[in-house]
Amino acid sequence: MKSIVVYESRYGSTERYANWIGQELKCKVCKISDIGLEELLSYDNIVFGGWLHAGNIKGLKNISDNIEKFKNNNKNLIVFYVGLSILDERAYKEIYEKNFKDMDGIKTFYVRGAFNFQKLNFGDKMMMKAFKLVLKKQKEEEMDDNTRGMLQAYDTPVDFVCKDAINPIIESVNYNK
């Protein structure tokens, strides 16, 4: 069975995961913007990776807009998405509702990424400064570990990207071979 890994990445974490998955599967890896739908449909296993931005998985629209074509052609579609936080059940549910509501049968995986405030572009820095103000409004005793960690990450870059995190994704592809 032919496999491909396609992704959208902004600061490199998603691309790192995509390349590792491609190496393990010994398959083509490319940006989602660099491949057309017809070529994508020529693969049996399609692994898509995107990054979380305000609860939306960037680049997933390329998949969701064509979900019926993937289903009608019996494609094994796997989506991994990259974010910074440790997701709790509420966050998983919100992400699912925003991104996968009409995409039943797709295997999804969350992996953690990296954050370096100094490397953000101007627009992202402004958005993250606003987010920081929201976080700082919480009382210290009401903050969870995610909130404390996020506030610390503004001053000290963090990198949670871990190659072992791809193992369940690889197993999911290999299970369908």
Description:
The chain is of the alpha/beta class. The protein has 2 domains: 127 residues, Rossmann fold, CATH 3.40.50; 40 residues, no CATH class. Strands 1, 2, 3, 4, 5 and 6 form a 6-stranded mixed beta sheet that branches. A two-stranded antiparallel sheet has the order 7-8. Strand 3 and strand 4 form a beta hairpin. The longest helix has 15 residues.
Shape: elongated
What's the level 1 CATH class of the largest domain? Alpha Beta
What's the β-strand tally? 8
Helix content: 40-55%
Overall structural class, as computed from helix and strand content, comes to: alpha/beta
- Helix count, DSSP H or I runs of 4 or more residues: 8
* Major β-sheet annotation: 6 strands, mixed
Rg from alpha-carbon coordinates? 17 Å
CATH architecture of the largest domain: 3-Layer(aba) Sandwich
What is the number of domains?
A: 2
Q: What is the succession of H and E elements? A: EHEHEEHHEHEEHHEH
Brief summary of the model shown:
By secondary structure, the protein is of the alpha/beta class.
